[in-house]
Amino acid sequence: MVFQSLALFPHLTVAGNIAFGLRMRKVPKDVISKRVDESLDLVELPHRKYGRRRINQLSGGERQRVALARALVTEPRVLLLDEPFGALDLKLRKQMQVETKKLQRRLGITFIFVTHDQEEALTMSNVIGVVNKGRIEQMGNSKDIYERPATRFVASFIGEANILGGKVEALQDPYAVVHQMSKDAPGISVLVPPDGLAAGQDVFVSVRPEKLRVGPDTDGCVNVYEGTVIDEVYIGLASRIQVQLDNGPRLIANVQISNIGDTVPIGTRLRVGWNPNNSIVVLR
Asked: Which CATH number fits domain 162-282: 2.40.50.100, 2.40.50.180, 2.40.50.1000, 2.102.10.10?
């Protein structure tokens, strides 16, 4: 196990901590030395620089890497990792994710990985279990969890989503019409896939921000609405735009800069749209 609290031995050196499990297994000393060096290289703490250091001489991120190396060096059949990369910077965390997955494939052992980072869960897993109040809401692979959430909680918890509560008004082949309920506005009608729906059902419609189109990019979309930009945040690969629809809710759209120009000032009037097959309907 890689403990969230680390549980490293303060009286041992870095190398001593990593070697501890191997010594308990009475592994030959030359093999211990080789495997300790390999584990230190894996977590980017080379032996010549870090091996003789005490735990209190390390930063928080370095201690986290020692804890990971200590667990991996024994090549266990099952490894429980309790948020093991939480103290690492973004670049190293992503590198460790890749290296840990490679190691898991090489060893063929089961990793049970606990994390509150949705992107990390999607990156690391073969199977994800989303737990809410002690109950497993959904289990599946990364694509299933993200693209086909089974409940409102999963849709809102994994990644970012616009969630519209409403009622199925009618089934109009090839779509179902859901009227989104709004406290302060008439609401909007949204076309969604009709599978498994019946008129009068209360449902939630989830649409991922990256599925929304804005401005001229809405040409060809089925669900199209007018609104006003009330916030814009530059996030590198895209801009995160919040739009207040004229008769409905606020929607968040992640759009490529090249599609909207350098910026979209607050107060800009524009259209927001998406296609029905990008709507995810959940019943609870």
From this structure: 2.40.50.100
